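Quick review question:
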């Protein structure tokens, strides 16, 4: 008769089994006992503390005290440790992907020179106060010319000169003095330049142009570079570009002039003058301008033909000015 098999004795869950020096495990593997310099600690592997870490009880003075504390620890419920989950393929791909570049901060808008702000406002009939005052301003950075600009009852001296010297030169009882020949000649000497002509300043906006206006095409560089009007324009303006109509009846020149404003000048072929072509070209020039940006023109009042052409095209006078070209400094 075969011997009867021995029945395995049930494991005491509270019995501590030594694993290594200073380390024990409970019979059911739930608790681990660790020894440190402060005493003995009981670690519950199935629960977590308020920070989500493993639950540690103690310290206890002796190993026996730890053993006696196990039954009570079984009845203590804090919260169960979450089971670790494998990250999804989408999460792993996101973790492995290089960090997205931070968006570049928007560049701060460049400050607008006071003169340009006044000119842009005047384009919409908002003028400086008619207070008989004279503003003295430093010219914009990179400017090709100094200037004296006059509006109704308000003037601006925009030049590289000490304000006190300008005010000592201007009589307080003469609001027209900034445009007087005496002051302009004096200012030219201080700047090492000569005053240009006194020009009327006119302005128009793209929205004023008729849809039937001529269409202009760029003039080839070689041809434009040989044109005297283009050469002269480059003394006063940056980003100069030349255009003409399909029949090449004249030339339209655009560029960035005083204080960065967009300026236009026009020249009609001599044999075709007096036929309204100048007005057609001045109106067509507005089709080349970005929406909302005004286009400025400077015309000597004695040049009646040019003045009438711009007025007929819808340009409005807003003031007068004298430029002091810096080519001699």
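Suggested answer, residue by residue:
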């Amino acid at each position: 008769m075969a011997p009867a098999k021995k029945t395995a004795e049930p494991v005491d869950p509270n019995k501590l089994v030594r694993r290594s020096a200073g380390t024990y495990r409970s019979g059911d593997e739930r608790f681990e006992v660790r020894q440190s310099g402060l005493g003995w600690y009981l670690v519950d592997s199935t629960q977590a503390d308020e920070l989500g870490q493993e639950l540690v009880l103690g310290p206890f003075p002796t190993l026996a005290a730890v053993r006696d504390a196990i039954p009570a620890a079984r009845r203590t419920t804090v919260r169960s440790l979450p089971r670790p989950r494998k990250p999804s393929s989408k999460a792993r791909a996101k973790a492995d992907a290089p960090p997205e570049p931070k968006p570049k901060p928007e560049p701060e808008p460049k400050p607008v020179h006071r003169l340009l702000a006044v000119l842009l406002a005047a384009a919409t009939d908002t003028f400086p106060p008619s207070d008989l005052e004279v503003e003295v301003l430093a010219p914009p950075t990179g400017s090709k010319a100094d200037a004296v600009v006059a509006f109704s009852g308000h003037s601006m001296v925009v030049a590289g000169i000490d304000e006190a010297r300008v005010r000592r030169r201007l009589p307080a009882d003469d609001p027209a003095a900034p445009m007087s020949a005496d002051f302009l000649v004096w200012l030219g000497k201080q700047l090492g330049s000569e005053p240009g002509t006194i020009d009327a300043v006119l302005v128009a906006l793209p929205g004023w142009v008729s849809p039937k206006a001529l269409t202009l095409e760029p003039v080839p560089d070689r041809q434009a570079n040989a044109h005297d009007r283009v050469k002269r324009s480059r003394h006063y303006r940056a980003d100069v570009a030349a255009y003409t109509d399909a029949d090449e009846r004249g030339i339209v020149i655009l560029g960035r002039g005083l204080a960065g404003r967009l300026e236009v000048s026009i020249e009609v072929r001599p044999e075709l003058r007096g036929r309204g072509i100048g007005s057609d070209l001045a109106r067509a020039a507005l089709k080349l301008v970005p929406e909302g940006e005004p286009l400025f023109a400077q015309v000597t009042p004695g040049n009646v033909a040019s003045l009438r052409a711009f007025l007929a095209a819808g340009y409005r006078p807003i003031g007068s000015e004298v430029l002091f070209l810096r080519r001699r400094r």
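Why it works: The chain has a mean pLDDT of 87. The two ends are 128 Å apart (CA to CA).
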